[in-house]
Write a structure and sequence with these properties.
Elements (H helix, E strand, L loop, with lengths): L17 E6 L14 E9 L10 E5 L2 E6 L1 H13 L3 E9 L2 E6 L4
Antiparallel strand pairs: 1-4, 1-6, 2-3, 2-5, 3-4, 5-6
Length: 107
């Protein structure tokens, strides 16, 4: 993975009680299997032009895409992310080859 500077103007989503798993990482080289248990900064980015899911929310780490929120979760969180301008900073939790984010309950 290469390292890119994140735009400092992105808002941060406050943590909540919902554990939202990152899916589809197998299409991006299974990046979490090579990582130790950690909390790392990441980004959620809307993909409204995604041909498979108009509510798609991509997960990025160090400037590279590493997965998505599931379609069901993306449908719930897309309005919140849209209200924040389409992208936001989050903390990714990585353990045992999986990653998730703790998000507030969608409204």
């Amino acid at each position: 993975m290469f390292f890119k500077k994140r735009a400092p103007s992105l808002p941060r989503i406050r943590e909540g009680s919902s554990h939202v798993i990152v899916v589809g990482d197998e299409y991006f080289g299974n990046p979490f299997t090579r990582m130790k248990t950690a909390e790392v900064p990441g980004e959620l980015r809307r993909e409204p032009a995604n041909r498979h899911d108009r509510n798609a929310i991509a997960v990025h780490l160090n400037g590279s895409q590493v997965g998505y929120l599931s379609a069901a979760r993306a449908a719930k969180y897309a309005p919140m992310l849209d209200a924040l301008g389409g992208a936001a900073l989050v903390t990714l939790r990585i353990s045992q080859g999986e990653a998730w984010v703790k998000l507030p309950s969608p409204k």
